[in-house]
Inverse folding.
């Protein structure tokens, strides 16, 4: 693939790398696994890039390829067992409105998300990224109505985990 | 406030804490080797296609052909070998056509469906290959029992025991082949099947 294409891709990836990092955070539980998944997603994005026609936004296309890699294509590496797991609070609150009750709630929430299935994690991720139900449905390959119902089920699952 | 709304509020704040890789680091990463499950499915499927072909090459070797000729099985062996190669070619074409449909740009459901369909092509091929084993074993055993060279040897034994042993050999070979295949299939597709089921069974 040409250098120009590579440069353009790397620039796009650099700009939107947060999307990939956030997916890695949801699907892995330590730094090695995070790096492995980040690498695999970047490779898959690069492999698919020549077919990206720019009909959709780069970020929308990126959500699809990245989530597909996390759900389907990624083979979990064994070496992640050797490293220490992330602290339970991965996403720390750096807010001036610090609220210990809220922080505890969030800690438990992130832990609860980790216990969800691969598909449910993808739904939660798209919801947190403020994607509408049509986009969620398109990315997952289900109908919009199913996406809504499924999202409600995920919310209920989370409630059940949080309030056993 | 809904618990997910609380998360949503917090979600945006994390951007600052995420790693920032430079374009040079990213450039190195994209040229590393992929360890995608699809790559492994492709390699293992190819090996599975080749294994029966290699075994048939062995069965079709010249010295074995002479024995088959003596048993009156030369034509039978020739036909089954040609049939086996034809089946392999048809399934390899089907496999390739299904494999080409696998794209990371599809929706999650379509991607999972296409991967599982590709593996199913291999599954049907393995079934057919394995079903050839008892046919070959039984036909060879039958001819040996009636061949002038071997018949006197077998006459010393109880015919029921001979057929029991023949059946045991055939079942063991099929069983072993199936077990190895299921093990490979399970390792490769366990997680994919779970996700596929979750997306497919969902009726709302």
């Amino acid at each position: 693939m040409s250098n120009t294409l590579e440069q353009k891709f790397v620039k796009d990836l650099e700009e939107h790398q947060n999307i990939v990092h956030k997916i890695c955070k949801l699907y892995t539980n330590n730094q090695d696994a995070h790096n492995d998944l980040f690498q695999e997603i970047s490779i898959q994005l690069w492999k698919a890039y020549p077919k990206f026609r720019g009909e959709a936004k780069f970020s929308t296309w990126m959500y699809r390829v990245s989530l597909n890699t996390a759900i389907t294509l990624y083979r979990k590496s064994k070496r992640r067992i050797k490293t220490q797991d992330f602290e339970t609070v991965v996403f720390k609150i750096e807010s001036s409105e610090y609220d210990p009750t809220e922080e505890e709630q969030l800690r438990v929430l992130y832990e609860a998300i980790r216990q969800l299935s691969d598909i449910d994690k993808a739904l939660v991720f798209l919801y947190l990224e403020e994607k509408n139900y049509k986009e969620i449905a398109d990315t997952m390959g289900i109908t919009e109505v199913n996406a809504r119902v499924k999202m409600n089920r995920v919310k209920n699952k989370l409630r059940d985990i949080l309030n056993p | 406030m809904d618990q997910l709304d609380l998360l949503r509020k917090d979600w945006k704040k994390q951007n600052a804490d995420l790693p920032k890789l430079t374009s040079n680091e990213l450039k190195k990463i994209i040229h590393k080797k992929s360890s995608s499950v699809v790559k492994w499915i492709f390699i293992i499927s190819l090996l599975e296609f080749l294994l029966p072909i290699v075994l048939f090459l062995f069965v079709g070797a010249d010295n074995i052909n002479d024995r088959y000729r003596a048993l009156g099985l030369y034509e039978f062996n020739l036909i089954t070998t040609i049939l086996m190669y034809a089946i392999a070619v048809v399934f390899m074409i089907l496999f390739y056509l299904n494999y080409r449909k696998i794209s990371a740009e599809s929706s999650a459901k379509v991607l999972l469906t296409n991967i599982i369909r590709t593996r199913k092509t291999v599954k049907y091929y393995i079934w057919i290959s394995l079903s050839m084993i008892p046919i070959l074993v039984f036909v060879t055993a039958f001819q040996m029992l009636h061949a002038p060279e071997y018949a006197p040897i077998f006459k010393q034994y109880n015919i029921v025991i001979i057929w029991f042993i023949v059946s045991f050999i055939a079942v063991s070979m099929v069983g072993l082949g199936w077990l190895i295949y299921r093990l490979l299939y399970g390792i490769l597709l366990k997680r994919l099947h779970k996700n596929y089921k979750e997306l497919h069974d969902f009726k709302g």
